[in-house]
Amino acid sequence: MDHISLYERIGGDTTLRALTDRFYDLVFEHEQISHLFKNNKEEIKEKQRLFLTQFLGGPQLYSDIHGHPMMRARHMPHAITEEDAVAWLRCMAEAIGELPLSEPLKEELFSRFPKTAFFMVNKNS
């Protein structure tokens, strides 16, 4: 039996566009972490969508356009604390919670983020 990626099981690009739209609305309004996102919101959303496509088992769109993700290196210029990672994860949890997916699928999707979010921490509180 062929493996069906999480990207495909959540509905692919349509779902990722809805997720990144809602997620970045929450992030840009969040008092704790909005300062970490200084670039153009649409540009940030597009890069995140490309990355998540790849991260969740879809086409390697991010790498095709921007090269290897090197996520920790790309985040090093920004001072990111554990509290920032928690706030980021809360925004992601809320955005995922609003998707029209089954609860088990929402849980599986969210489970992909904590390890990566805490890997970005580069500053003590």
UniProtKB/TrEMBL annotation:
Does the record's keyword annotation contain Transport? yes
The GO terms describing molecular function are: heme binding; metal ion binding; oxygen binding; oxygen carrier activity
Q: Supply the SUPFAM superfamilies for this chain.
A: Globin-like
Keywords attached to this entry:
Heme, Iron, Metal-binding, Transport
- Gene3D superfamilies hit by this protein: Globins
InterPro entries, per this entry?
GlbO/GLB3-like, Globin-like_sf, Globin/Proto, Hemoglobin_trunc
Q: Which family does it belong to?
A: Belongs to the truncated hemoglobin family. Group II subfamily.
Q: What is this protein called?
A: Hemoglobin
Q: Which organism is it from?
A: Dyadobacter jejuensis
The taxonomy runs: Bacteria, Pseudomonadati, Bacteroidota, Cytophagia, Cytophagales
